[in-house]
Amino acid sequence: MNEIGNIVILTGAGISAESGLRTFRAEDGLWEDHPVEQVATPQGFAHDPGLVQRFYDERRANVRGASPNAAHLALGRLDAQWKGELLIVTQNIDDLHERGGAARVLHMHGEALSVWCVACDARHHWTGTLSDGPPCPACGQVAMRPDIVWFGEMPYRMEEIFAAIARADLFVSIGTSGAVYPAAGFVQQASASGARTLELNLEESLGSRLFDETRLGMASELVPAWVDQLLGAPLP
Ligand code: APR
């Protein structure tokens, strides 16, 4: 695999499932108890801001209580050792990639531990709650919302992502169902620009047929094995 220089890795909720954070579309997934339209759209927020703030207060608390698992740690090791370009594009709002040692991480759907003041446009690192209406530390207004990309909003840093995919020799998707665009379309862009494509997921996803190779299993097992393979360590 020495010819591989540039890597783009897309991650989804499946990589954090073994850290105790619920995925979205499983039978016991987050969208089962919380209709998407209510908690993950601008219209839902306008209709019942308290409900939405409480939902993300809970997400923030859960993220703080979770720890990176073997898959996050393996990607942290890869990021530290990989000499070529590498970008971990995550749909996840948790900070487990960073706590797993990865630095080259891009949160395309926002971050649980960031809040955004819609009055003054400031963003703040935030570990507490918003449902109790704290004032923005920058402007003093009570106008902070979760710094999360909701359905109907534009994901962050798309130009950077597309540019990285265009340069990639290898595109790897980990723990995502392939249900949400634009992330679900990255594999096709990567293939079109000549990258090899690999999927690591618990089960076949909506996009499995689009990948050159799919490996099925738990992220905590598949990801460390793949990283070892890539870095040239002996396989277990
Ligand atoms: N290891 C590997 N894969 C797993 C594991 C595991 N331990 N557990 C679950 N998975 C897989 C599931 O089989 C599923 O295909 O992870 C995938 C999770 O899919 P979703 O719940 O749809 O999560 P995701 O793809 O990240 O969702 C995308 O949807 O609502 C939005 O903004 C939200 O970023 C999210 C986006």
TrEMBL record:
Similarity section: Belongs to the sirtuin family. Class III subfamily.
Residues reported in the UniProt entry to bind NAD(+): 12-31, 91-94, 175-177, 201-203, 219
EC number: 2.3.1.286
Cited function: NAD-dependent lysine deacetylase and desuccinylase that specifically removes acetyl and succinyl groups on target proteins. Modulates the activities of several proteins which are inactive in their acylated form.
Catalytic activity: N(6)-acetyl-L-lysyl-[protein] + NAD(+) + H2O = 2''-O-acetyl-ADP-D-ribose + nicotinamide + L-lysyl-[protein]; N(6)-succinyl-L-lysyl-[protein] + NAD(+) + H2O = 2''-O-succinyl-ADP-D-ribose + nicotinamide + L-lysyl-[protein]
Gene Ontology MF, one: protein-malonyllysine demalonylase activity
Name by which UniProt lists this protein: NAD-dependent protein deacylase
Domain commentary: 2 residues (Tyr-56 and Arg-59) present in a large hydrophobic pocket are probably involved in substrate specificity. They are important for desuccinylation activity, but dispensable for deacetylation activity.
Subcellular location: Cytoplasm
Cofactor-binding details, from the entry: Binds 1 zinc ion per subunit.
Domain Deacetylase sirtuin-type intervals: 1-234
Cofactor(s) of this protein: Zn(2+)
Keyword Protein biosynthesis: no
Xref: PROSITE patterns: SIRTUIN (PS50305)
Keyword field contains Zinc: yes
Binding-site residues for Zn(2+), renumbered to this chain: C117, C120, C136, C139
Organismal lineage: Bacteria, Pseudomonadati, Pseudomonadota, Alphaproteobacteria, Sphingomonadales
Keywords: Cytoplasm, Metal-binding, NAD, Transferase, Zinc
Top enzyme class: transferase
